[in-house]
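Protocol step 4 of 5: obtain the predicted structure for the target chain.
Materials: sequence only (see below). No template structures provided, no constraints applied. The aim of this step is simply to have a reference model before the mutagenesis design in step 5. Sequence pasted as it appears in the construct record:
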Amino acid sequence: MVEFVNIGLSLVLIGIIIALYCRGKITWMISIICVFFCIRLDISILGLTFGSHYLLLPFLSAIVFLEWRKGNIYFSRPTLYFIIAWTSVLFIYIVAYLLRGNMDAWPEAGIKFVGILAYIIEAVLLVSLLQRLEDREKFNSFLYFILITAAINTMFVLLQLFFSSAGIPLTRLFVEGHILEGDIATGFFKRAHGIYFSPIILAAVTSFMFAVFAGYAIKKRKIPFHYYIAAILIGIIGLFSYTKTAVLGYPVLLVISIIVIFVQKDSMKSRFMQIGKLCLCVLLMFSAWYVITPPKNEYKREMYMGYLGQNFNRVFDTRIRDLVEDKEVDQELEQEVDQELEQEVDQEVVGNTTGTTKSSLSVFKENPLIGVGPMSVAGEHIYDMMYISVLHNGGVLAFLILLIFYGGLAVYTFIKKKVVAFLIVCVFAFASLAGDALVYTALLPFFALALNLTENKGGKRYYLKPNAVRHELTDDKANT
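Step 4 output (structure tokens):
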């Protein structure tokens, strides 16, 4: 049933995207494309399960091709750096897998490689379309996308937490998986999932939405009052995921926003006004979340509120321990509960006798230069933290490439006061503590926006069609 519903919904959205392009509604078209990526439905055709974004990819490629024929497609330096960084990492992953990986799992490894390649292509295509928009159109496009996605998740979250008898079957129409089943095993949702298979993705998506609102509020200084109301509601939905990503992420994002405000060229009064508004938003979202949490979820609320004020080791003790410590086992298959995901994770053990299940960090230490590729080689659990998974998959070499790219992106956007892009990169930094955020399709629209906003309007552009009419900005427009 899930497959038919998701295929039908995906085809409807693709039809809307094509119709909007034909009518020249580029702003709305990009909004729906972002919604499509962000909700990321799983579909199954002929027994093969994959993300719905693969259905969109050929249509998106065709649209960009038509724009290329018109001479509207070019690459900026940030986009080129992104392509170079991630294709280099993908090459390292492939070489590491061929040299040291688990060759018995080659079909799964191939799927991982295709997924990374698809992410690179999709990000470049979306950035290329965003280049067609002026700044105001870009803001409107992402505003529509955020409001539509937030409305969809709000409906799901309210049904999941307050009307479980309706929320459980509705969610199962669109999502399936052991994480979902683990959270509803008691007959109600322990944590809200929204339209995603994991509550962590809901927390990450809402954190990015809040970062976009905060960034535009800082940059524009004056935005309509109802935008703040929307930001508060989005924050509350994120907190209902009952994850560290949301409960700790919003205060961290607030602190970073305050630092950014103080480096802006504003009067002290204006700075404190902006800080007061953002602090009030965060205070109201936490207060509302605390008050309206359903009684059956109060223990979750207290558990995650308890993490506020804890030191780093206390906050991430379980996740770090699972990834860096080897485990003694006395049977072939061991079930263990992860306190962050609260799901059962299969810990595979090599051999049929007592032995040790190695951690991802131990495998990396044995293969420090290029890692072992994206598959487990000694029963290790990999994808709970982006930083360690990159070390495991591509070693120090891949880690340094991504560190230079994303670190450079953060430094550049901070120095150039590109506030929205900087806050998005910061959210990626802490969201990566809970999973492979850098390659989550659901988060791709936010990275594409950051990459597009990083472009220097007066910088060099690399057009793909030499004889095309190039719509260069005048100095007046660039300054505006």
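Step 4 remarks: Strands lie at 42-45, 48-51, 74-76, 327-329, 333-337, 344-348, 355-357, 461-463. The radius of gyration is 22 Å.
Proceed to step 5.
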